[in-house]
Amino acid sequence: MVIEVNRREFLFIPLYFYLTKKLFAFKKDKNYNIVAPYTKGSDHHLGVFDTYGNKNFDIKLDARAHEILFIKDKNCILVFPRRPGTVILVIDITSGAVIKKILSPDNSHFYGHGAYSNKERLLFVTENKYKYSDERSGSIAIYDPFKNFLRVGELKSRGLGPHEIKISRLGDIFIANGGVLTNPDYPNIKLNLNDMSSNLTILCRNGNLKEQINLKKSEYSFNSIRHIDIANNGKVFAACQNYSPGNAKHTELIFSYKNKKIEFYKLPKKSLKVINKYAGSIKVNHNLRTLLVTFPKGNKLIGWELDSKKVCLNESLFDVCGIVSNNQSFFNFASNGLGSLYKVTQNETKEIYKEKVKFDNHLSLIETN
């Protein structure tokens, strides 16, 4: 069902460990640790913090990381590179050892995101086969963590530029196809903005197309769906970047979708002028029944009530982009480009860590107990 809406060997090991002889061991008296890639000067790092803002340890990387994914079944984290990275690091969280480097095939690179299916016990990774200039370039690589991360297959992403990918509780695969064609031979150039076609694709567990929301033939045709999250009831939430020419505001950047119904979320009027057509990270807090989105170019963290869609949070935080929710309690964490980590609750936003670094786009929470 389709619905339309009116080279290699980067991150070269060894890694460098700091702080104490604990190496990568997590503090066992805490339920969660915050994992945050960041840049300090010209160096790239991966920092791990407890939920009070204390840094447990720090790893120096050879290049910038993007998303960090925890696979509890394997007691490891995956460090995804930024586009056009070609190496994913698999790190054991007890010893700190790099137990695997996953290399992309020739003429392809990773898009910085992946998802683990608890049902299938497989890893799904967004990928660009850049030798193609059409939908054949969008690919989902499949790896088996229990066979030393062997590549066991791939799926068509059903679009261009697949970015974030999520797996629902039922095992359906949600893909944010950004619709923007890129090629590492032409770095930092978007090759098809006049004819971009972004979509949200939902695949069944067997890879068959279940639903697709296509923005091309609509007033939102210059929206690029980049990041997504899924509520417990199966509703998907999406955050877009807008590439329309000119200085129009284009405030319809956040939407939800379920049961063939798409709904856009209204931004606070005072924020319309500053968001600059760019949404960063998006997260659902199931306990708080809230949706949180960062707007780094507009220096805004905005939250909505899931049920009423009313704005319940409107924080001004410089260059805020990372956001993650602890769904076992009633708080969230955010990060920005000035080296701050924040604990965000219903009543306050409190800085819990500060250093002269630049946190990258995404945060992750690692369950330790």
What does this structure look like?
The chain has one domain: TolB, C-terminal domain (Neuraminidase), CATH 2.120.10. Helices cover 0% and strands 49% of the residues. It has no helices and 31 strands. β26 and β27 (331-336) form a beta hairpin. The protein starts with a strand and ends with a strand.
Protein traits:
mainly beta; Neuraminidase; 0% helix; globular
Short description:
The chain has 369 residues and is an all-beta fold. Helix content is 0%, strand content 49%.
Task: Tell me the fraction of residues in β-strands, as a range.
Answer: over 45%
CATH architecture type: 6 Propeller
The structural class is mainly beta
| CATH class categorisation | Mainly Beta
Largest sheet: 6 strands, antiparallel
| Extended strand count | 31
- CATH topology category name: Neuraminidase
Continuous helix count: 0
Shape: globular
SSE layout and pairing:
Blueprint: E1 2-4, E2 16-17, E3 32-40, E4 43-50, E5 55-61, E6 65-71, E7 76-81, E8 87-92, E9 98-103, E10 109-117, E11 122-128, E12 138-144, E13 150-156, E14 162-167, E15 173-177, E16 199-203, E17 209-214, E18 223-230, E19 236-242, E20 254-258, E21 261-264, E22 282-285, E23 290-295, E24 300-305, E25 311-316, E26 320-326, E27 331-336, E28 340-344, E29 349-354, E30 358-359, E31 364-367
Parallel strand pairs: 1-17
Antiparallel strand pairs: 2-5, 3-4, 3-30, 3-31, 4-5, 6-7, 7-8, 8-9, 10-11, 11-12, 12-13, 14-15, 15-16, 16-17, 18-19, 19-20, 20-21, 22-23, 23-24, 24-25, 26-27, 27-28, 28-29
